[in-house]
Each structure stands twice: as structure tokens, then as C-alpha cells.
Amino acid sequence: VNRTVKSTGALTKVVNLMARGEVPPTEAPFLCGARLHAAVKKDGGLRPIAVGNLLRRLTSKLVASTLAHRAAAYLAPHQLGVGVRGGCEAILHTTRQVLEENPDLSLLQGDLVNAFNLADRDTTFREVEEVFPECLSLVLTSYQQPSLLQFGSTTIPSEQGYHQGDPIASLLFCLLLHPVVK
After folding, report:
1. Does the CA dihedral 73-77-81-87 come out positive or negative?
2. Do the beta carbons of residue 137 and residue 125 sit within 8 Å?
């Protein structure tokens, strides 16, 4: 029991340190880096999935969960991708019902190609600072400087966008798109 209490306390200190953005700049590229895995898309293309450091993922997940209800309220009614359980399914069912009830309507579906990887970080930082300043330190630690992505034996600097697989990345992307969507 004593080891459990000590290790839980130590883990809590590290997570809180990371959430406050107190990771030394020399360590951030490694701690906020990730191993890349290539997932095959339906069209045969590849989607890079970043599996980041466990401590960074844990910290991002805890911060994102803490903000989920406020994020859902802020993004509503235009976006249901963050903080709304079953949000994507709700959009699908609602769209299907509206189209069935109104056969004269048409649906235009768009896809932002490579959106997470091409997102502008500086604009994201400004949105986060304005809407959720309490997580800005973590976001800056994660994305202000290039982090190191490992793909096999190759190291790739991540200088743009967010890592698919980062638990806070969906919130960042929704914040970036929100002014346009509104």
C-alpha cells in the first residue's frame, strides 16, 4: 500500500508539472514526441497515427476530460465532436431523418484532407489562449517547438498540425475550426 501511495503521488506530481507547462524546453521534443504508425485508409492511402509518450497522453487525456463539458457548451450547436457522447452518431441520424422528411434537400459533404497534420499551430495557440487559457501551457509544451516522431529508424520533426492520437488534439482542431464553422 505504501508503494502505491508513493507512486500515485509521484505520478500526480509529474502530470501536474506537465499540465502547467513546466517541462524543460530541452526535454519537450522527446516527451511530446511519438512513434508513428501507418493506418490504412479505406481509399488505400495511409493515415499517420502518433502514439505518444504515456505520461504526455495521460496528461492530455486528463486535461481534455476536465474541459469536455465546457468545450461541448462552447462549440454547440455547430460542433458535436468534443465532449458530446455519441455526437457523431447524433449528426448521422439527424441528417438522415431531415433528408428523409425533406426529399427536396441535398447534402454536401466535405472532407478536409490531412487536416490534423496541416493545422496552423499559431492560430490554435491564440484560440486556446482566448477560450481555454488554463490548458495553454500544456498545448505550448506539446506543440510550440518541433517534437520528434519516430517511424521505424527514421526521426521526423513534427512542426505543423497536431498528432492524431493526442487526446487533446480533437479539441484543438475544433477550436481552430470554430470561427469558420460559426
Report:
1. positive
2. no
